[in-house]
């Protein structure tokens, strides 16, 4: 019974998450030939304040991006 776990930062709609789960499920069935009913897909969403890369959280990167966009719109 394959179990696929996807971890990603929050911010997607329920429809996007459902589409991802569907596509992952179908890929597992196609690629390893298991029965559809045997496949499990789990999506874990992590708050953007709890995920960092290069010692900067995703929330901090969002804030930096938003500030840069506002600065460019204001000029």
What is the fold's blueprint, element by element?
Elements: E1 3-9, H1 14-32, E2 40-46, E3 52-53, E4 56-57, H2 58-74
Parallel strand pairs: 1-2
Antiparallel strand pairs: 3-4
Describe the structure.
This protein has 75 residues and is of the alpha+beta class. The protein has a single domain (3-74), classed as Macrophage Migration Inhibitory Factor (2-Layer Sandwich), CATH 3.30.429. The chain has two helices and four strands, in the order E-H-E-E-E-H. It has helices spanning 14-32, 58-74; strands at 3-9, 40-46, 52-53, 56-57. The chain has a two-stranded parallel sheet with strand order 1-2. Strands 3-4 form a two-stranded antiparallel sheet. The longest helix has 19 residues, at 14-32. The termini are far apart.
Question: Any key phrases for this structure?
Answer:
single chain; 75 residues; alpha+beta; Macrophage Migration Inhibitory Factor; two-stranded parallel sheet; 4 strands; 24% strand; elongated
């Amino acid at each position: 019974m394959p179990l696929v776990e996807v971890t990603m930062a929050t911010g997607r709609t329920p429809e996007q998450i459902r589409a991802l789960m569907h596509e992952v499920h179908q890929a597992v069935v196609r690629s390893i030939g298991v029965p559809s009913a045997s496949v499990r897909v789990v999506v874990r969403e992590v708050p953007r304040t709890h995920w960092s890369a290069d010692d900067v959280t995703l929330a901090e990167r969002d804030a930096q991006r938003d500030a840069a966009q506002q600065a460019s719109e204001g000029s």
